[in-house]
Design goal:
By secondary structure, the protein is of the alpha/beta class. Helix 5 crosses helix 6, helix 8 runs antiparallel to helix 10 (about 195-210) and helix 19 packs across helix 20.
């Protein structure tokens, strides 16, 4: 029954993630509160379904606690995990007390459950150093604490859940008056309630509805799936009341990266030791504006790990993720410094993706400039290009594999299916419908030997491709199809595209033009085509521009660590000369010459050209400097670089370091560089944790 309560709460919350992301205002409007809370509960709830041996309250609660600690992310997810960890502690303490009195350790009366919830509420203040009223902390604290006053009595579980839901709803309504930042009622100003608090109330509401048999969300077949098209929509009159959200700059942050880690504490250390370290670092987490502090929005929770020992989860907003990770290493029992989980997300980019870069009062928009998803450097024009119903052609490629997040939703862009297949399930995952959270989870699995699994890729079949071709053709416009390679020895993708086109009727075939670019990652060419569509160019004009780009001015640089080298050699050994290796700690720098190819570049040589050896760096910074100097030395006269793309794997902060190096080297960059996290294929199949790539275009 306890498992069912947890799963039902997750189901209700999970059906409202769009709303929760939309009303996300505090501590920064980066539009991920609902996503983070769903991630916190998704796999833990799934594990409750799969673990048929969880036949005791203590085991269910402790398993849930360990899983939410490992999976919870972001401020809201970390605080929510604190709730479940604290509840598990209370249930465990009750079990110990019952055993001492020769009572059963696998049951709770309704009143005892209410008492455990109340004590859990009291512990919510310990989730963060400086609890803020009007947030998930105060709502969870106060709604739980009021469930037990010493003489409370409930006749059944439904009555307890109804009481809890009523109190939680009442506390939620108070949040616009309670949350005050720098003298401003930020929620009231934005016209919303606190997103994290609303998510917690959905959790409670889901438990209540389940007890009444009124929770259809729990039967959703997609409840635990990865890589499916999202159909979640927030429903109800409440959403209509929140439809006109017009101020998401009431809260902002001087810190760029939402950063967190889960470590298995070494023997003799505790969560308090970790918090003491953070507190001692220049008043980290304080409410003042000390420019030297490591970060703010600290949240920390610990729980027993399933395999033994104690896990500790730490969340922070910071500009120095690596400094944060370095300070945690002395507390980890892993001698190699590999944590159970790491996460770095660019909050300012996420905010701009969600609400647009409308500026901020503290200048933080200046810092986010290099994160913008607009390669052309003109955000207003870029926003116009998202809806191009008047474009003269439709684009079809593998956009969801390579494009930055914003362009993946471009109106005139269609994508062929592409699948990754985990060896554990054998179930193909359509990467078009995966997100950064799916990628982070997979990456953290891969980083730890005890959880690493093998992934393979699978191209869509000719029939699947034909369906996408027909969908694009149905718009009544010519279709420009991007293909990496026509060589079936390299990839089945190009062969299947050709077969799919052959399956079309003659008049349909006439509407399709194929551009063979040959450079692997086609993000640069898709973006160029999008820009051409925005400028109302024809398909023939666009083909010529993109073909010239691929032939003459496209350049790229890759940075290969020893981990990535071993991974790529295992995946595609034929790409490397015999005896090639990258030693631990080194980074091989490879890529195209930094010059215009006035005589062109035959498509059959492009893969080899892109892997041209530039040098071997003794550190990542050394490799970045070597790459920047390579570009600087290659540019002639007044030549500049533009269309700069820096896809990263797990660590977007590394991309910003690379950009700083490029600028300090004196390279003239036109437009706004685009730093973003790779999708599932680029990260799990063709990348490793911390991988960085650079793509750019040379212009006169």
């Amino acid at each position: 029954m306890l498992s069912q309560l947890f799963i039902s709460g997750y189901a209700k919350l999970g059906s409202n993630i769009d709303l929760l992301n939309r009303i996300n205002v505090y501590p920064i409007a980066d539009g991920d509160t609902g996503t983070n809370m769903r991630v916190c509960l998704k796999l833990p709830s799934r594990n409750l379904v799969l673990d048929q041996s969880s036949n005791s309250l203590v085991r269910v609660a402790s398993n849930m606690a360990a899983d939410v600690l490992l999976n919870g992310q972001g401020n809201s997810g970390t605080i929510l995990s604190h709730f479940f960890v604290s509840l598990a502690e209370e249930i465990g303490d009750h079990s110990s007390s019952s055993s001492m009195n020769n009572n059963s350790d696998d049951s709770l009366s309704i009143d005892e459950f209410a008492m455990c919830l109340a004590k859990t509420g009291e512990k919510m203040k310990d989730a963060v150093p400086n609890p803020q009223e009007g947030t998930i902390i105060s709502v969870s604290r106060d709604s739980c604490a009021q469930l037990w006053t010493g003489d409370s009595s409930y006749s059944n579980l439904k009555e307890l859940l109804q009481t809890w839901n009523d109190i939680a709803q009442s506390e939620l309504e108070k949040t616009p008056d309670q949350l005050i930042v720098n003298g401003v009622k930020v929620l009231e100003k934005a016209g919303v309630v606190d997103s994290g608090a609303q998510g917690f109330v959905y959790l409670v509401e889901g438990m209540l509805l389940a007890s009444e048999g009124k929770l259809p969300e729990v039967f959703d077949p997609n409840l635990f799936k990865t890589g499916i098209k999202s159909t979640t929509t927030a429903g109800g009159d409440y959403v209509e009341d929140l439809a006109a959200l017009n101020d998401h700059n009431v809260c902002d942050s001087k810190y760029q990266f939402c950063t967190e880690a889960v470590i298995l504490l070494k023997e003799g250390t505790t969560k308090k030791d970790v918090m003491d370290m953070l507190d001692s670092h220049d008043d980290c987490g304080s409410d003042d504006n000390d420019d030297n502090e490591l970060g703010d929005s600290i949240a920390c929770v610990s729980a027993p790990a399933k395999e033994g020992g104690v896990m500790c989860k730490i969340h922070i907003h910071t500009n120095e993720p690596q400094t944060f990770f370095d300070k945690l290493k002395p507390f980890s029992c892993d001698p190699n410094g590999i944590f159970r989980k790491e996460k770095v997300e660019d909050m300012l980019m996420m905010k701009e993706l969600e609400h647009g870069n409308s500026g901020s009062s503290d200048g933080s928009s200046d810092r986010s400039e290099s994160s913008s998803s607009c390669c052309c450097g003109d955000h207003d024009d870029h926003k116009k290009q998202i809806d191009l119903c008047d474009a003269k052609f439709t684009i079809l490629g593998t956009g969801q594999l390579w494009l930055p997040p914003k362009e993946r939703t471009f109106e005139e862009l269609h994508s062929f299916p592409m699948f990754v297949v985990p060896a554990t399930t054998g179930e193909p995952i359509d990467v078009r419908y995966t997100d950064s959270t799916d990628t982070i989870l997979a990456l953290n699995q891969q980083r730890n030997p005890d959880t690493a699994i093998t992934y393979t890729t699978a191209s869509s079949s000719p029939m699947q491709m034909k369906i996408e071709l027909l969908a694009a053709i149905a718009k009544g416009k010519p279709v420009l199809v991007f293909v990496f390679s026509a060589d079936s020895k390299v990839s089945a993708f190009g062969r299947n595209v050709k077969q799919a086109i052959e399956m079309l009727d003659p008049d349909q075939k006439d509407m399709v033009t194929v551009l063979l670019h040959g450079w692997g990652n086609e993000a640069s060419f898709l973006l160029e085509a999008i820009e051409c569509a925005r400028d109302n160019k024809t398909i023939d004009e666009t083909y010529d521009i993109c073909n010239d780009y691929a032939n003459e001015s496209y350049c790229k640089i890759g940075f290969m660590s020893s981990d990535l080298c071993r991974k790529m050699k295992a995946w595609r050994p034929g790409l490397f000369p015999k005896g090639f290796e990258v030693k631990d700690g080194q980074y091989q720098v490879s890529g195209t010459p930094a010059c215009l190819r006035t005589s062109g570049c035959p498509i059959e040589t492009r893969t080899q050209v892109s892997m041209g050896h530039i040098g071997m760096g003794d550190s990542m910074m050394d490799a970045f400097i070597m790459a920047a100097q390579h570009i600087k030395n290659g540019l002639k006269g007044s030549q500049k670089v533009t269309n700069v793309l820096i896809p990263c794997v797990g660590r977007p902060d590394y991309g910003h370091v690379l950009l700083d190096v490029l600028k300090k080297t004196g390279i003239d960059i036109v437009g706004t560089p685009n730093i973003y996290s790779e999708g599932l294929v680029g990260s799990v199949i063709m990348g490793s944790w911390g991988s960085v790539n650079l793509m750019y275009k040379i212009i006169e």
